[in-house]
């Protein structure tokens, strides 16, 4: 199965609270670039489920990406994938969801540091990878072992 872990687009530096930081125009553009890239990688394959952080910048990232991606079967606002989410808990939750629902493609839109730690839960390759804004890691997950290989780690600057 394919698991895509994405960091939200570039956001404003200040807001009333961290959860209220909105995307910048550059963040919107970067997210659109990455959505177009991902669409090519998926080659028409549908996204079974999208999990999005409740923070404004993550929600906006999904909103600008959605029209450029294959249809998503279900979109969920997931409280556990904020910047303060626990990677081990999210890893267990996602593995259970993937197994029970027999999902083929899942997209997670979240934040630093969770995106790096979460990627490392599957790949276990030493240091968690860094994620620029709008960057994505595409993991090929072996559902039997709950381990994965990273088939791509792409950021807008690399496009």
From TrEMBL:
<dbReference type="InterPro" id="IPR013078">
    <property type="entry name" value="His_Pase_superF_clade-1"/>
</dbReference>
<dbReference type="InterPro" id="IPR004449">
    <property type="entry name" value="SixA"/>
</dbReference>
<dbReference type="InterPro" id="IPR051021">
    <property type="entry name" value="Mito_Ser/Thr_phosphatase"/>
</dbReference>
<keyword id="KW-0378">Hydrolase</keyword>
<dbReference type="Pfam" id="PF00300">
    <property type="entry name" value="His_Phos_1"/>
</dbReference>
<protein>
    <submittedName>
        <fullName>Phosphohistidine phosphatase SixA</fullName>
    </submittedName>
</protein>
<dbReference type="InterPro" id="IPR029033">
    <property type="entry name" value="His_PPase_superfam"/>
</dbReference>
